[in-house]
Amino acid sequence: MAPGRAEGGDPALAVRIASGALLAALASGAVLQGGAALALFLLLGLALAAREWAGLARGGSEPGRMLLLGAPLLLGGAAILAVGSGHAALAWPLILLGAAAAAGLAALVPGGAPHRTAFGTLYLGAPAAILLWLREDPRGGAGCVLWLLAVVAATDTLAYAAGRIVGGPRLAPAISPRKTWAGLAGGVFGAALVGAAGGALLGWSWPWASGLAALLALVAQAGDLFESWLKRRAGLKDSGALLPGHGGILDRIDGLLPATLALGLVVALGR
Q: pLDDT tens, 145-163?
């Protein structure tokens, strides 16, 4: 999401900004509401993401593809319901043991993809459940989740802007030819600034918040590169066409997924 220097105007930029702003508003509203509203929002997002994941992972048969789609949705959905009903401790065995069971089932299906089925469950289901857990747990809360969303959005936006304005050497041309080192630096810098400001508003130590935000920016951009690799491997430009100017839902949350896992671990270990 951090292309090199542009030679002309970008007519899709306004559409990109508008669709991104709408998604951000919906997500922020769901986070502020919490509870069932956020759980339903996450379930919807999980269903859309699982559909795109099945297209990227490309099972060798229709039953294999259905497992690629169904395992993250059913197991991730069960974990979300466990967290939402106050039984968060059950969510993590559901995800981990469920992923192993789904892989075993995929191994029995002609054209199944055991490792992709298990990975998709962890890749999509775990962050969805962790987002709800972060919102509902006293160690997190709405402010913590909104801070995470703002940090990832700043990473994406500043990486995109720095890549366009500065250009320069490519970050990983074999994976994503448009991403640049300038974009990486801009994303980390933007995340650090937003993280410090947001952390100060939440009463956190701003140097700590800034450092954590910079780390999450690196994790988010690694997730961005990983999804770019998945698309290149599948021969696709975008994971889908749901969001004008962005592509699919996975194109929009590719950085948020690993960043959520990282922040969840930080909070669980004691922020």
A: 999 999 999 998 898 888 8
